[in-house]
Amino acid sequence: MKKKLIMPELYTATHWMNRKVARESLIGAPTLIHFWSVSCPKCKQALPVIQSIRDQYSDQLHVVAIHMPLSNDDLNVQKVARAAEYYAITEPILIDNTHRLADSFGTRFVPAYFLFDPYGHLLEYHMGERGALRIEKAVNRLFFQNH
């Protein structure tokens, strides 16, 4: 992962859920992009934190989910759709069945969280079990709020 990462293009997603987004549509406001997988328990445990961020800053922050499969079983788009509905993932979901998005972000890990400034420059990156809490603090700092 490069510290000077510019938000990669998103068109390499193999499928889209909820609504389609392009990098250009995200410029102008900060953006949180989170990688998750249906077979990742830590991802599912972190979703309430991400949803809280999404809901709290809905008018100031773009949130995008990228599903990165960890196994052949995770390639099933219907399985991802069921999980997204069950876990109330209402933000745009990009499905990365070819790992091209993961490669462009320089990650192979889930959960992973990327916070970009309004111009598409990476502000912070966190991964793993505590990544959601760390990115939540970064988002709160970005909007000058203490929680």
Automatic annotation (TrEMBL):
The keyword Disulfide bond applies. InterPro entries: AhpC/TSA (IPR000866), Thioredoxin-like_sf (IPR036249), Thioredoxin_domain (IPR013766), Thioredoxin_ResA/DsbE_sf (IPR050553). It comes from the Bacteria. Residues 1-144 form the Thioredoxin domain. Keywords: Disulfide bond. CDD domains: TlpA_like_family. Gene3D superfamilies: Glutaredoxin (3.40.30.10). PANTHER family: THIOL-DISULFIDE OXIDOREDUCTASE YKUV, THIOL:DISULFIDE INTERCHANGE PROTEIN DSBE. This is TlpA family protein disulfide reductase. It comes from Sporolactobacillus mangiferae.
